[in-house]
Amino acid sequence: MKLPVKSLDELKHAAEQLVAFGGSEKIFLFYGDMGAGKTTLIKSLCENLGVNEPATSPTFSIVNEYQGTLSKIYHFDFYRLKNQSEALDLGYEEYFYSGNYCFIEWPEKIPDLLPDHYIRVDVEVVSDNERLLTFTKI
Ligand SMILES: Nc1ncnc2c1ncn2[C@@H]1O[C@H](COP(=O)(O)OP(=O)(O)OP(=O)(O)O)[C@@H](O)[C@H]1O
Ligand SMILES: [Mg+2]
Fold first, then answer.
1. Which helix (H) or strand (E) holds 87?
2. Which one of 7, 39, 40 would you pick to mutate in the ligand 1 pocket, going by the greatest count of ligand atoms within 8 A of its CB?
3. Which-ligand-closest: CA of 31?
4. pLDDT tens across the length of the chain (138 residues)
5. What number does the ligand 1 atom closest to the CA of 129 have?
6. Which sequence spans correspond to the domains of the chain?
7. Residue 51, CA distances (Å) to 3, 43, 47, 93, 135 in order
8. Most exposed among 9, 13, 107, 120, judged by the fewest C-beta atoms under 10 Å?
């Protein structure tokens, strides 16, 4: 499914669409260049799921945990991962298979550890405030 997002204001709608597209799938992998808007979209998703605190980029830790209305949310940013064994060390499987939402930035860093099924989200920059989102069920 392709979803054009014309401005930051439309992200709320995009987040609703993405959660609906996911259905019972709780694991979402986000692909896109640096600064494409992965964290910004995840922030909007967290708001949609009832998180009160702001979802900031997990700069200091690989995984941040938030409390939504119905479930916990784990937000991963693997950008700074040096190798895949670091993901093993942080116990990524416990998070992935917990049944809670998992939003994962830079899944390219863990090519051998990807779950069997997930929603792939591609974020492409169209112009300053415009993005093209593509949702795919894997
Ligand atoms: N429609 C839009 N959707 C998402 N971000 C947008 C949009 N329009 C403008 N932006 C801006 O683009 C920037 C996206 O930054 P963000 O940190 O979300 O990127 P990122 O993909 O997470 O990058 P990184 O790979 O470094 O983590 C923000 O400054 C945000 O305000
Ligand atoms: Mg980010």
1. helix 84-89
2. 40
3. 1
4. 999 999 999 999 999 999 999 999 999 999 999 999 999 999 999 999 999 987 666 656 899 999 999 999 999 999 999 999 999 999 999 999 999 999 999 999 999 999 999 999 999 999 999 999 999 999
5. 8
6. 2-137
7. 24, 9, 5, 23, 22
8. 9
Whether 42 and 75 have beta carbons less than 8 Å apart is answered as yes
* CA 18 and chain centroid, separation: 10
Is the model's pTM score more than 0.90? yes
Single-letter residue type at 74: Y
**Enclosing H/E stretch for 125:** strand 119-127
Burial-class residue 9 by CB neighbours within 10 Å (0-12, 13-18, 19+): exposed
- Is the CATH code 3.40.50.300 the one for domain 2-137? yes
- Find tokens 């670091």 and name the residue: 86
> Strand 72-77 vs strand 101-105: parallel, antiparallel, or unpaired?
parallel
As a three-state string, the secondary structure of 20-55 is HHHCCCCEEEEECCCCCCHHHHHHHHHHHCCCCCCC
